[in-house]
Amino acid sequence: MATKLYPPQIDGILPAFYKNYTEDGEVKNAAIAIPFGMNRAVTLEEVYKLSLRLKTVSTNTIIYVGECDSFDRTELIAYFTIDKETAEKLNEG
Question: 23 versus 67: which is more confidently predicted?
Fold first, then answer.
């Protein structure tokens, strides 16, 4: 039996990233919490992980692909930690 993949539904503007810094001011990593909605054809028991792809605005180049660290099944929020190398590429402001 074939399995269908139903992507999460993300409404509105995504929340901004925040960067974590060392005491010396160097970037450690970045974190983001993304709220999402579920397709009615999918139950919470069928969701194990969510994936995030970050692309540049100007060239549409993928700069990060990763799975969520965790997600809240009640509030429907996925939490991601972005590695240091990618976090340094993210623009502030």
Answer: 67
